[in-house]
Structures are given as C-alpha cells and as structure tokens.
Amino acid sequence: MSDLLAITQITTSDLDEDLVEEVTRHRPSRVTILIQGADGGWASDESEFGQELRDRLAFLLAAIERTTGAAVVGVACDDDQLAGWRFDWTVRAGMPLAA
Length: 99
Hints:
Elements: E1 3-9, H1 16-26, E2 30-36, H2 48-68, E3 71-76, E4 89-92, E5 95-97
Helix pairs in contact: 1-2
C-alpha cells in the first residue's frame, strides 16, 4: 500500500491535469489532496469562488480515482492538518517533490 500527498495551490487550476498526471505516474493506493491557500470554510462557501473550488476538487477526485484506481482519502487546506501523517510520495503540479 502506498500513500501520496498531492499538493495544489488555490490559484493554479490550470495545472490540475498536470497534477493528475504526476499522481498517476506514482500509482498510489491512497491519495490525500492539499489545497494550499484555501481556508477551512471552503466546503460551505456559497460564493461563486467556493462553488468553483468544489467543482475543481470534484474534478481532481474523479480524475485521480479513475486514472489510478487509488482512493482519495482526504482533503486538507493547511500543512498543520497533516501533522503526523506519513506519505511515500509528495507531488506538486509541474514539480515532483521528495517525500
């Protein structure tokens, strides 16, 4: 079983397909998505921006699960939410990072 952290920025939706490609390359079993720059209220934000963010997240979840067969096990908005978690790989759209 392998765990992967996929990091994206709240402002870089144009790199989402690149992120999915990076995740697919590693063939993980489980994926956690970190959306840097999002606040904790993104799930209940009824503004146009909030809805666009949820649509973007839905795209990422579906694309990652479809292309890898991995389960997306969580979404985080802050590194602090991941304290104590361990990942075999960490990838960022356009640039793979060491775990």
